[in-house]
Amino acid sequence: MARTESNMLPLGTQAPDFTLLNTVTAKPVRLADVRGEKGTVVMFICNHCPFVKHVNEEIVRIANDYRVTGFGFVAISSNDVETHPQDGPAEMWQTARKYNYPFPYLYDDTQEVAKAYDAACTPDFFLFDSDLKLIYRGQLDNSRPGNGIPVNGRDLREALDNVLNNNPQRKDQKPSIGCNIKWKS
Questions:
Q1: What CATH number is attached to the domain comprising 170?
Q2: CA 171, 157, 181 angle in degrees (round to 5)?
Q3: Which of 17, 75, 86, 178 could bond 121 through an S-S bridge, CB–CB 3.0 to 4.6 Å?
Q4: Number of separate domains in the chain
Q5: Are the C-beta atoms of 127 and 160 separated by less than 8 Å?
Q6: 72: exposed, middle or buried (C-beta count within 10 Å: 0-12, 13-18, 19+)?
Q7: How far apart are CA 78 and CA 104, in angstroms?
Q8: In terms of pTM, does the model score above 0.85?
């Protein structure tokens, strides 16, 4: 497994706007459509990456736990489907159904959204506040495939709880580690 770290977009960055195809409903979804009252989590994931497969159930739990508290969630796949056809829209639909994603799973065909977010790996997590300013980016938790650490979403959950409790975010945010985004040549 190749291990690629997040690029760690600067905190305070305004969330780049987007309109992408929701692979489940076949309808376009805008950032405004998924924006939460308290904040918005934007996740770059894909179907084939073992790092994403390792955390899929936990990201569903987190979305279910925090949507009711005012957070919006969205997942985006930006991989080149020429080289990785298992990450195409039909397969994305199947993955969303399999895990019962409680958030839209969007397809970034042009890869422009991944570039705008400076996304580097899957999974890559971005938490924006109610004004869509970046307040957390990086890892879900310390668990990785094969390292024996249980998946619990601790880092992202702590960031979400900090928003709910009006606490400052940690300064020592750790980058996510995963498969690199499969860029078009």
A1: 3.40.30.10
A2: 80
A3: 178
A4: 1
A5: yes
A6: buried
A7: 14
A8: yes
